[in-house]
């Protein structure tokens, strides 16, 4: 019975956090809140002792105004649990449940002691744990009326080890409004796929290309239509960053060496372990020779792209 009530309370608090994030008016505040939760989850999952974990969680909260505002909303709802829609058994169990959280080797400190000592927001994060925080993020992602799902992916990539060596300016550009990959409908016949790709809207083509990275199990993002920084999408493969440039060209319009030279600069700025140039045409002889001497650069012409439609993408 106690475990059932605890699970119900945890789901309720997950819902409070998700609703608070969704209710934030400014996209940048939602992004900041997501970053806070991602970082808090990393702290809880880390090897630090409880004293250090609590200090790090408090520091994260204090450094982010948006996170503090969302935490305050959740705390107000929790403190008003008696008038909430929680079933009576859960209302009775809530203070007992939070009081039973073992921290720093002390049992039963709960809301009264720890609510004052470390702050109720931190106590709630500890109560949720890594799985609960993940549930908050997933709840936001699965909201069909929200674009926050993409923001979560972006925040996860920008704050990961994969971008640690990227320039600050590059990370800032990555955090700009982005879109999720989207595979476009294509026929089964190879010749018909070729014709469909050549006729595809350039932005739809970018989303289509990035869908192969997503299908391969990577976190993948498409950059804004108006971007002018030399990449159309990026993906994370563990601690490795991949940048992608798409060129939906006519069959007789080959990608030349100058375009690859510019893209190499993007790869360097991103500290990417690999960069893909994907086109519906092919590459000039000079371009192929240049890519052969550029570590991590991969050229995908029409034939290789058609192969992606028949086989799963292998990042290697």
UniProtKB/TrEMBL annotation:
Q: Which UniProt keywords apply?
A: Membrane, Transmembrane, Transmembrane helix
Q: Name one Pfam family in it.
A: Mrr_cat
The Restriction endonuclease type IV Mrr domain covers which part of the protein?
Answer: 198-308
Give the InterPro entries listed for this entry.
Answer: Restrct_endonuc-II-like, Restrct_endonuc_IV_Mrr, tRNA_endonuc-like_dom_sf, Type_IV_Methyl-Rstrct_Enzyme
Domain of life of the source = Bacteria
From the record, give the transmembrane residue ranges: 92-114, 120-141
Does the keyword Transmembrane belong to this entry? yes
Keyword field contains Membrane: yes
PANTHER family assigned: MRR RESTRICTION SYSTEM PROTEIN, TYPE IV METHYL-DIRECTED RESTRICTION ENZYME ECOKMRR
In Swiss-Prot or TrEMBL terms, this protein is called Restriction endonuclease type IV Mrr domain-containing protein
